[in-house]
Specification:
Distance between the termini of chain A: 35 Å
Order of helices and strands of chain B: EHHEHHEEEEHEEEEEEEEEEEE
Largest sheet of chain A: 5 strands, mixed
Number of helices of chain B: 5
Radius of gyration of chain B: 21 Å
Strand content of chain B: over 45%
Order of helices and strands of chain A: HEHEHHEHEE
Strand content of chain A: 15-25%
Shape of chain B: globular
Helix content of chain A: 40-55%
Structural class of chain B: mainly beta
Strand order of the largest sheet of chain A: 3-2-4-1-5
Oligomer: heterodimer
Number of strands of chain B: 18
Chain lengths: 137, 365
């Protein structure tokens, strides 16, 4: 009885700490893979084109766990660090952050319709209408 | 509230963009920042050494900024920043800090037209945005000595990468202007034939910037006591600077040095520099120490036309700064800072030391 209660508690605790894989996705027309560094450069505005030279337009999730986790994994920056990073670029006129979209449905639609689009999703939300170019564990 | 010509231009341009382009095509972004700064000191003399001679009150340093940017497509974008800031008399004015268009014909190359910040120092473009730096205000021994901070003209910016290291070079030219108010006179000056360049080397944990600018200042001085404006010419002015920022693990180290030369005794000639070390003791809490020195000045605009300018000439100014930076939320920072100012003059009877305590709340939205 005690062990089953302990199991329930452990499942409860780990369900809050579990971090899902994050998939970085693009349009199906793109046939390249990307490295973690290349994803970092695209989402932090360091570079504005895919490795093949075609323009890239990253889009962002709204503030929340997935977004914080994504930037922690690709840049080791928390929400506050990212705010400071973009403030440095926005308020000097040297860059703009990726446009934020409202949830997975809007992001999937954008990726399906725009070959220059790149986004990230909870890996479980990815479907056959987009190409996964990298998975952040 | 007073509206400058530049801010009217920005409002007009934004209105035109709204009318000329469909909202979706404009891709407009509106952002903002604010700094609420209060200062307490035991000497009014110390106040003239900070922030280009402005008297420090809650009004004169508190500011609100709005940033508007738009991607117009076809490699063309536009950005502008408005700043509302008070003065000693408690009145607020609205000015366009900068407003320019960017054209990117190829990856890495940007042509920039419009009013821009002279980017000679490491944090020049961030001067009014307290959220982007650790101090309550940028060290005056470097950031207070460039008479003209903005210009209207053209910049050519090129950046390329060597592995993970980015090299960015900006070459620029145009004309600038600035107004200086002293206790005895008002000076409107222009920076003619302004030109300069900056080169910035940056990687994940460090940034190095070298800068140079030169121009021919001229202007008109009006004495507070009355009379016709007096034309002024200042000869050739030039400044060179170097700055390094190192940000690794818990350490944030910044150091800058600037050297200026002028053919006129009325404008600063000399050098200033600072070194600052910050250590993130907690994820949200970062104490810092800064030492700054400015010296060998041949003169100062702010003392003109005081007849005793030669005896009140500043030989050396030292700033000792200790502060704490606390992240209140991801978008708000509280800063508390103490500064000791030590000034030495040719006439040693003018020497003084002062203590300045500053509290600031910096936010972005």
């Amino acid at each position: 009885m005690l062990s089953s209660k302990l199991l329930i508690v452990l499942v409860f605790v780990f369900s809050f700490n579990a971090v899902a894989d994050i998939a970085v996705v693009t349009n199906l027309k793109n046939d390249f893979a990307l490295s973690k560094e290349q994803i970092h450069d695209l989402f932090l505005g360091v570079k504005e084109a895919f490795p093949n030279g075609s323009p890239a337009k990253p889009v962002d999730q709204h503030e929340g766990t997935l977004r914080n986790e994504f930037y922690k994994k690709i840049a080791d920056k928390d929400e506050s660090d990212m705010n400071a990073y973009w403030a440095n670029l926005i308020f000097t006129g040297n860059g703009r952050p990726p446009k934020m979209m409202n949830g997975n449905d809007e992001i999937k639609k954008y990726i399906r319709e725009n070959p220059e689009g790149i986004a990230y999703l909870d890996a479980t939300a990815v479907d056959a209408s987009m190409r996964t170019v990298f998975v952040l564990k | 509230m007073r509206l400058s010509t530049g801010s009217r231009l920005l409002v007009l341009l934004a209105s035109w963009l709204f009318v000329a382009f469909p909202t979706r095509a404009l891709d407009l972004q509106l952002r903002g920042f604010a700094d609420l700064i209060g200062t307490q000191t035991n000497s009014r003399l110390a106040l003239s050494t900070i922030n280009n001679g402005a008297h420090l009150t809650l009004d004169s340093e508190t500011r609100i900024g709005l940033n508007l940017s738009s991607d117009l497509g076809n490699n063309l974008s536009f950005a502008g920043q408005l700043l509302a800031q008070g003065n000693d008399s408690g009145q607020y004015s609205l000015n366009a800090l900068w407003i320019f268009a960017n054209y990117k014909p190829i990856e890495g190359l940007t042509l920039r037209f419009g009013r821009q910040i002279n980017p000679i120092f490491l944090y020049s473009e961030q001067f009014d945005v307290g959220f982007t730096y650790i101090w309550t205000r940028l060290p005056a021994v470097v950031y207070g000595i460039l008479p003209v901070n903005a210009f209207s003209g053209l910049s050519v910016i090129y950046s390329y990468f060597i592995n993970r290291i980015q090299l960015r070079t900006q070459i620029y030219g145009g004309a600038g202007d600035t107004d200086v108010e002293t206790a005895t006179a008002s000076i409107k000056s222009s920076a003619n034939d302004l030109m300069g360049f900056e080169t910035t080397l940056s990687a994940d944990h460090f940034k190095v910037r070298l800068g140079y600018t030169s121009y021919h200042p001229s202007g008109k001085m009006t004495l507070i006591s009355g009379g016709a404006p007096i034309p002024l010419t200042f000869g050739h002015y030039k400044m060179a600077s170097a700055g390094v920022q190192f940000d690794y693990s818990k350490f944030l180290i910044s150091t800058e040095y600037a050297h200026s030369e002028s053919e006129s005794p009325l404008i600063h000639t000399g050098a200033g520099g600072y070194a600052s070390v910050a250590y993130r003791v907690l994820p949200r809490l970062t104490p810092y120490l800064t030492f700054g020195r400015e010296g060998n000045l041949s003169g100062s605009l702010y003392q003109f036309p005081d007849a005793t300018v030669s005896t009140t000439q500043l030989i050396q100014e030292d700033n000792y700064i200790a502060g704490i930076n606390f992240k209140l939320t991801p978008s708000a920072i509280v800063k508390l800072e103490y500064m000791r100012v030590e000034n030495r003059y040719i006439d040693s009877s003018k020497n003084f030391g002062a203590d300045v305590a500053t509290g600031a709340l910096s936010v972005i939205f």
